[in-house]
Amino acid sequence: MQPWSSVPVPQVPGTPHPLRLYDTAAGEIRVTTPGPVARMYVCGITPYDATHLGHAATYLAFDLVHRLWLDNGHEVHYVQNVTDIDDPLLERADRDGEDWVVLAMRETALFREDMNALRVLPPQDFIGAVEAMPEIIEAVGKLLSSGAAYRLDDDEYPDVYYRHDATGRFGSESHCTPEEMDRFFAERGGDPERPGKEHPLDALLWRAARPGEPSWDSELGPGRPGWHLECSVIALNRLRMNFDVQGGGSDLAFPHHEFSAAHAEALTGEHPFARHYCHAGMVGLDGEKMSKSKGNLVFVSRLRGDRVDPMAVRLALLDAHYRSDRSWTADALTAGTARLARWRQAVALATGPAAGPAIDELRERLADDLDTERALRAVDAWVDAALTGTGEDATAPGEIRTAVDALLGVRL
C-alpha cells in the first residue's frame, strides 16, 4: 500500500535530549537506544470506520517518537500495518450490504487523508495483511513444523492454533494476571471456547475457509490468517528482531502484542521481539468510554468536515499525557483552538524573548516520556511573554515556529 504524503521536518537549533519512554514489559521509564536507524512498528487500523480520536491520539503519540528520534539525528524506519481482512471488517461489510474490499479501500483512503491533515509523518512501509499473505502463510507453516502450532482435529474446519506457552515467556510483555488474560482474550477477539483447542488461550493462526467468507489457497488449505500473526510477520520481515519500539493503544498490550511477540520469538528463537513496548491511553467522550457499540465515536474526518483546524485537534489531543486515559470534550477543542490562535499571533510578531530556553525546555519535556502537557506550557510561557512585548530578539519568533513544527508537528 502507498502511505500518505510526508511533510518536511526542519532542523531545530540547540541540543536534543535522548528520548526516554515507559516500557510496559519492564514496568519503568527507560531511555531508548536506537542505532543510526531507529526502528518502530505501530499497529494500524482495521479499516471499517476510520479515523476516530482514539486512533488519532495513538498515532500522534508515536509521531512524536518519530520526530524526537529525527531531532536526535537518527533515520527512522517506521512500519505500520492495515488489518484489511478480519472478522470486524467482514461483519461491517455484511451489515451494510457492501463489498468488504471496497469498504477496506475507502476507509484506508480516509485514514490516509486524516493522517495527512494531522501532519503525522508517514511510515516507510504501510502494509496490508492481504498483500502480506504469502509471508503469513509461510510463517504458519514454520510454526506447525516446529511444534509451536497445531491443527485442530476437525474434518470440516481444521483451523491452525498457536500454543500460547510455546516459548515459555508468555506474559512477559503485558504482565497480565491469569484472570486478566482470560478476560481480555475473550473480550478482544479471542475464541476461548472453540472446541478442540488444547488450551483456551491458544491463538488462531489460520482460519479454514467458511462458506461465504473470503479465503486464500495455500499448502495449509484454503483460509485466512488470525489477527496477531500478521503484525509478527510484517514487523519481523521489515525490521528484524529486537527493533526499538512496538507501539499501539493500551488495549493491544494483551492479547495482541503479547501474541505478536510470542509468534515472532517462536519463529526466530530470539528474544525480545521489541526492546520497548509502549502503549497509549484510551480517549472517551464527555466522561464515557468511546466505542463503536455506544455509537459515540468522534471522527477526525467529521471534525475536518466541520472546518475545525486539524492543528487545533492536534493541540487538544496533545494536552494530556499519552499514557493517560482521557476524555474528549467541547472544552478541550475550544482550548486547543484558542491556544493555536495565541501561538500563531505570537510567532507573527517582529520580535520576542530569546527562544533558546523555551526550546530547550520543550525538548526536555518531550524527551521525558512524551510529557506533552508540560511541553505545551513551555511554549505557552514564551508566547505569553512575547504577547506582552517582552524581548527584542528578531530571530526568536521564527525559531519557535520551527521548533513547534519539528517537535510537536504543529504548523503555525
Short description:
The chain is an alpha/beta fold. Helices cover 42% and strands 14% of the residues.
Characterization of this structure:
The chain is of the alpha/beta class and 412 residues long. The chain starts with 19 loop residues before the first strand and ends with a helix. A hairpin with an 8-residue loop joins β6 (149-151) and β7. The radius of gyration is 22 Å and the shape is elongated. α4 crosses α6 and α11 runs parallel beside α13. It has 13 helices and 14 strands. The protein has a five-stranded parallel beta sheet, with helices on both faces.
List keywords for this structure.
single chain; 412 residues; 42% helix; 14 strands; five-stranded parallel sheet; 13 helices; elongated; four-stranded antiparallel sheet; alpha/beta
**Helix and strand pattern:** EEEHEHHEHEEHEEHEHEEEHHEHHHH
| Residues in helices, as a percent range | 40-55%
Stretches with pLDDT under 50, minimum 5 residues: none
Structural class of the secondary structure composition?
alpha/beta
- Give the termini distance in whole angstroms: 31 Å
Residue-averaged pLDDT:
96
Strand content: 5-15%
- The Cα radius of gyration reads 22 Å
Tell me how many strands there are: 14
